[in-house]
Amino acid sequence: MSRFWCKRFGLLFGLALMVNLAVWLPSAQAAIIGTKEEISIGRNVAEQLEKQYGLVNDPALQERVTRIGMRIAAISDRKDLPYTFRVLNSKEVNAMACPGGFIYIFKGLVDLMPSDDELAGIIGHEVGHVVKRHTVRQIEKNLVGSILFAVLFGDRGAFIQNMALSAIMAGYSRADEQEADAMGFIHIQRAGYNPYGLLIGMQKLSELKHDGNNWFSSHPEPEGRVATLQGYIRNAKVHPLVAQVDKGARITDSGLSLPPLYATYKGAKPLYRTEFAAGELYLLTKLPDLDGERFILDSDGTFISLYYDDRLIVVLTPQDASSNNTSLDGLASQYVEALKSWVAAGKTAKS
Fold first, then answer.
1. Would you say 306 and 335 are in contact if contact means Cβ atoms under 8 Å apart?
2. What are the DSSP calls for 250-303, one per residue?
């Protein structure tokens, strides 16, 4: 057969393949890329990311992120994947989920989220992308044209790897991000993390929107997503809730009246401090033996920390006290007495 006819035959074959795939693809997308190939794709993309950015040389930090990630993976709907959680050596505020469960958090994002609960929210979101196969589905949508090109000019595997990396870098659709947020909230609740963790993280990211940060090239519309997450908290009947007051924020719940917080402490604004405290109190309500006498105060001479046993609830500052027209010791006493009454009221309601 002449070279002309070989090329013509190849083109006709490729076009026929594309037509057949176009008809077949919508009803069988899930079968195009199986779990084994998904893992292979993700592993190759992960290698490229590590070559490009490098890993942070901090074993303790890598272990911490892995510990949080594996706790999330253990309660996810795709426990069978070989999950890895690593921190890339970049000041970018970003995170990426490769197919097959290879999750990367950029060092800049870790620095912005100092608590395990905030990191758990972000990791839970990224695991949500993997659970829902968002990148894989995007690859499958693009496979018709790429398979045609690969049949004529190259191999399918190389094109899929390139598509995977391109899809991750390009970001997700609005619907995919909303679904990952919903999964992130579900994941942190299942894993027993502070239910406000993802909300606090998203609020912080929302404040960075106008700083030209890379997160927003792949994770758009933080303001709307903050409102949606607040709705998830209400719908899940998480309590106490949080309300902003003047320049501070207050915990609100039936039978609980706590003075507002007004100070920024260790970079955390009053709203974030209040949300964290509300989430910790919510987790206490899940304990079978909650006891109001187990609230403990500890002072370092400047601040007073309120604990339940060894679990930190909130750190009270002199500015919080002065804004509430009381002393720091007085404010701490108000918190303890109010929480004791709240616990007692909750026990009475259950009996």
1. yes
2. EEEETTEE-PPB---BTTB-HHHHHHHHHHHHHHHTT-TT--GGGEEEEE-SS-
Helix, strand or coil for residue 306?
strand
β-pairing verdict for 102-106 and 84-88: parallel
Report the alpha-carbon distance of residue 329 to residue 292 in Å, rounded. Answer: 19
Q: At residue 127, does pLDDT exceed 90?
A: yes
* Residue-wise pLDDT tens digits, 248-290: 999 999 889 899 999 999 999 999 999 999 999 999 999 999 9
Instruction: Say which residue the tokens 């006819």 belong to.
Output: 5
Task: Identify the three-state secondary structure at position 3.
Answer: helix
Cβ pair 125, 181 in contact under 8 A: yes
| pLDDT-wise least confident of 10-14, 50-54, 205-209, 315-319 | 10-14
Structural contact between residues 103 and 76, judged by C-beta atoms closer than 8 angstroms? no
Cβ atoms within 10 Å, residue 199: 29
pTM over 0.70: yes
- What would the two tokens of residue 95 be? 């995170």
Q: Whose CA is closest to 188, among 180, 178, 197, 175? A: 197
How far apart CA 241 and CA 53 sit, in angstroms, is: 40
**Which residues, 6 or more positions from 184, have their beta carbon under 8 angstroms from its beta carbon?**
121, 122, 124, 125, 126, 127, 128, 198
- Answer whether 125's CB lies under 8 Å from 180's CB: yes
Return d(Cα 110, Cα 153) in angstroms, integer: 42
**Residue 154 in contact with residue 133, Cβ under 8 Å?**
no
CB atoms within 10 A of CB 81: 19
Residue extents of the structural domains in the chain: 3-218, 240-350
